[in-house]
Amino acid sequence: MAWIVLIASAVLEAVWATALGMSQGFRRLVPTVVFAVAMTVSMAGLAYAMTSLPTGTAYAVWVGIGAVLTVLIAAARGQERLTPLRAALLAGLIGCVVGLKAVS
């Protein structure tokens, strides 16, 4: 159960990071509210997952998934280019996250 909560929290990390960028320094209401809600729920989920998973592993998985999804969202929105090298590096990051899960 902790792994499912952790992965959901990592997805919400990508949501709040994207919303933060869209908030234009907290000047836009809707992205600011999305940021605040997603961040609160994401942190709560991370905290819950850390009650039964090693802190370092949980945090690395949370950050890794969140970072990859944030880049993919930005690429899908046309804000960043997803070059073959960047895609390979992101795949390597996901491989490391899967590896951490496998050895935990």
TrEMBL record:
<dbReference type="GO" id="GO:0005886">
    <property type="term" value="C:plasma membrane"/>
</dbReference>
<feature type="transmembrane region" description="Helical">
    <location>
        <begin position="58"/>
        <end position="78"/>
    </location>
</feature>
<dbReference type="InterPro" id="IPR045324">
    <property type="entry name" value="Small_multidrug_res"/>
</dbReference>
<keyword id="KW-1133">Transmembrane helix</keyword>
<keyword id="KW-0812">Transmembrane</keyword>
<keyword id="KW-1003">Cell membrane</keyword>
<dbReference type="InterPro" id="IPR000390">
    <property type="entry name" value="Small_drug/metabolite_transptr"/>
</dbReference>
<dbReference type="GO" id="GO:0022857">
    <property type="term" value="F:transmembrane transporter activity"/>
</dbReference>
<keyword id="KW-0472">Membrane</keyword>
<keyword id="KW-0813">Transport</keyword>
<protein>
    <submittedName>
        <fullName>SMR-type multi-drug efflux transporter</fullName>
    </submittedName>
</protein>
<dbReference type="Pfam" id="PF00893">
    <property type="entry name" value="Multi_Drug_Res"/>
</dbReference>
<feature type="transmembrane region" description="Helical">
    <location>
        <begin position="33"/>
        <end position="51"/>
    </location>
</feature>
<comment type="similarity">
    <text>Belongs to the drug/metabolite transporter (DMT) superfamily. Small multidrug resistance (SMR) (TC 2.A.7.1) family.</text>
</comment>
<dbReference type="InterPro" id="IPR037185">
    <property type="entry name" value="EmrE-like"/>
</dbReference>
